[in-house]
Amino acid sequence: MSSTKSNSKRIITALLVVSWTAGIFWVGWQSPKLIGGPFEAKEAEVKSAQFYPLDKFVISIPGDEYPHYLLLELALKSRSQNVESTIKQADPVIKNSLMKMFSHKHFNELNNAQQFESLQKEAHGLLSTVLAENDFAIELDDVLFTRMVIQ
């Protein structure tokens, strides 16, 4: 009977050693996943730019003899998070700012194709400022006019 007890103690001890070794091996193998992966080299995430088109709108433009109308469609480019919901919330402020900007332009100024780039830059600066002043925490990379028709 004593040999049976000593054999069972040896078997139990061997099982404990094997179980302990297997457990330590598993924890060592899984440690990057368990700890959060500080041992793995991570590549920096590059956020791709997203484009957010706005609804088209019409603005009255002063002319020499009679008023003209500007149909404007544009898209905002940004890498920030929550841009879509922020733009929806800021839509009235964005459109109001653009209407003020364009209503102070003369027809001849807007009808000049050479002014297109400078108008986009002016709109970008204006909208970046207006969004920041109204506590909309997004960063605009660019303002793109996708359609601009003047009559």
TrEMBL record:
The chain crosses the membrane at residues 12-29. The keyword Cell inner membrane applies. This is Flagellar protein FliL. Keywords: Cell inner membrane, Cell membrane, Cell projection, Chemotaxis, Cilium, Flagellar rotation, Flagellum, Membrane, Transmembrane, Transmembrane helix. InterPro entries: FliL. It holds the Pfam family FliL. Coiled coil: none annotated. Belongs to the FliL family. It comes from Shewanella schlegeliana. Controls the rotational direction of flagella during chemotaxis. PANTHER family: FLAGELLAR PROTEIN FLIL. It is a single-pass membrane protein. It is found in: Cell inner membrane; Cell membrane.
